[in-house]
Design brief:
Order of helices and strands: HHHHHHHHHEHEHEEEHEEHEEEEHH
Radius of gyration: 25 Å
Helix content: 40-55%
CATH topology of the largest domain: Nitrilase/N-carbamoyl-D-aminoacid amidohydrolase
Strand content: 5-15%
Oligomer: single chain
Distance between the termini: 64 Å
């Protein structure tokens, strides 16, 4: 008992000394979250200046500076992810009677799981010489590294990567085509940390390189936007359908036929509508298991033009030797209503489409938040789909579009992203998801056709601009000629230049901090 009391007193003293700084770090992280959609408030990057100054003050009063920096980084990351991802809790309110009790665990638990990545970055930032300029440079490199790790560790979750903070305008966003969104994190952190560096006389030199980097980004963006090629003369016309089905209605058997008929009406278009080469429906758009021959096949064939294919999301149930498997798929259906090709989603959403360690966690009541609580089985690998009348495309289902490193072979000429953001209602989630789709278009140099159940659906060109779009909650369809592709360095070399930058940074800081030998004559 005495030992427990002493430990409690020690913990209390520890928190009393650090709590004000930790709270300020968390509030700074909250401020950073406002750089992401729908706010796009660039001054939110000043949170990095606040973090740098808190780290400097903390080190002066800490016996273990690396622990102090890590704690401040964890608090900062927690605040940023709490404010940036609170909308995930909306999914737990779709079936509130069953899942609302888990909402606090999801809203708070996910930021807690992500906070260690920021803690790692701030711990590494102390390897630089103790000036605000060098600490800003090391923080920029370390955060870009931890953001990259966040996108790959334990299946990855690169949502709201720091580099997104410089993509509010198409002009600055073009740099993602060269260095990717994690490369842009370096510039975003340096810009946000610059005011802190200017407070220290020996650190003011940082203004010149930061200004040069931003000017180069703007010049590159202007060049890329001005030289974007027009659509090819034979580019196909694409119709994107947004049925606007609320998540509570999506699997209601009573509403199944009305949802189906709405999809068919939007597929046909008006009496003067052009005949598209492809119609795209959202993720799991078909409210039943589609089979042919059937009445539904006949109805769909009548709705499609003679040379039009349907690209749609659907749930597919397969009978295998190991039992029944449910897959989240993109299916290509020909003008005759017969399925021709299928892609099974590879990157499933943890706790959304499957439950990790389901046997262990089932006792806690955690089940998949996907269709009818059925856990999905992942597909084997990303793929490119080639079908008559269309350039080859890569299907990405929902969450898969947030990953910069997703590739397919042979190369695709465009991306079809089907999604269902109805889980999250009118929150920042659908806007942030759209921004990720725009960044994939820039990084890969190819257009993205995005069909979302309740929005935001859009045709996105290779510069990340929405050529046509349907707003959130709208019901309708848009048509657009497939935009042209263009060269993007990132699509060819990926993150290798960034790896080289980290190596150069680590070498530089080792050289600057190495012991100096004084020669005696």
């Amino acid at each position: 008992m005495a030992i427990a009391v002493r430990l409690n007193e020690a913990l209390g003293r520890l928190l009393a000394r650090r709590l004000p700084r930790l709270l300020l770090a968390a509030l700074s992280g909250v401020g950073l979250a406002f750089v992401f959609p729908p706010y796009d408030f660039v001054p939110g990057l000043l949170a990095f200046s606040a973090l740098l100054l808190l780290m400097e003050v903390g080190e002066r009063h800490a016996r273990r500076p690396i622990l102090e920096r890590a704690l401040l980084g964890a608090a900062f990351g927690f605040g940023a992810h709490l404010m940036g991802l609170w909308w995930i809790g909306a999914a737990f309110l779709v079936e509130a009677d069953r899942y609302a009790v888990l909402l606090p665990f999801a809203v708070v638990g996910l930021p807690l799981l992500l906070a260690p990545f920021t803690a790692l970055a701030t711990a590494l930032a102390g390897l630089a010489p103790p000036t605000l300029a060098w600490r800003a440079v090391s923080l920029a490199l370390a955060l870009s590294f931890s953001e990259w790790l966040r996108g790959v560790v334990l299946t990855g979750f690169p949502w709201n990567a720091i580099g997104v903070g410089l993509t509010q305008t198409a002009l600055m966003a073009q740099s993602a085509s060269a260095v990717g969104v994690n490369g842009m994190a370096v510039a975003a952190v340096l810009l946000g940390a610059l005011p802190a560096a200017l407070c220290e006389r020996r650190s003011r030199w940082l203004a010149a390189p930061v200004g040069a980097v931003l000017a180069a980004m703007a010049a590159f963006g202007a060049y890329r936007l001005l030289t974007l090629p027009p659509p090819a003369a034979d580019a196909p016309l694409v119709r994107i359908v947004q049925p606007g089905v609320p998540q509570n209605d999506k699997w209601d058997p009573v509403l199944r036929n009305s949802i189906w008929q709405r999809l068919l009406v939007l597929t046909r278009g008006g009496p003067d509508a052009a005949r598209p080469a492809a119609v795209i429906w959202p993720e799991t758009a078909i409210p039943f298991l589609y089979r042919a021959p059937s009445l539904e096949q006949t109805e769909l064939a009548e709705a499609l033009a003679p040379a039009t294919v349907l690209i749609t999301g659907a749930a597919e149930v397969l009978l295998t030797e190991t039992g029944r498997q449910t897959r989240n798929t993109v299916t290509v259906i020909g003008p005759d209503g017969i399925s021709r090709q299928r892609y099974d989603k590879v990157h499933l959403v943890p706790f959304g489409e499957y439950v990790p360690l389901a046997g262990l966690l089932s006792r806690l009541g955690l089940t998949a938040l996907a269709a009818r609580d059925q856990s999905f089985v992942p597909g084997e690998a990303p793929m490119t789909v080639a079908t008559a009348g269309l350039p080859p495309f890569q299907p990405l289902i929902c969450y898969e579009v947030i990953f910069p490193h997703v590739t397919a072979a042979p190369p695709a000429a465009w991306i079809v992203n089907v999604t269902n953001d109805a889980w999250f209602g009118n929150t920042p989630g659908p806007r942030q998801h759209l921004r990720h789709a725009q960044l994939r278009a820039i990084e890969r140099g190819i257009p993205v056709a995005r069909a979302a159940n309740t929005g935001i659906s859009a045709m996105i060109d290779s510069a990340g601009r929405t050529v046509e779009r349907l707003p959130l909650k709208a019901v309708g369809a848009i048509e657009a000629t497939l935009p042209a592709s263009r060269f993007a360095l990132y699509a060819k070399v990926g993150d290798w230049p960034l790896f080289g930058l980290w190596l150069c940074g680590a070498t530089l800081f080792w050289w600057l901090r190495r012991p100096r030998r004084i020669s005696r004559g």
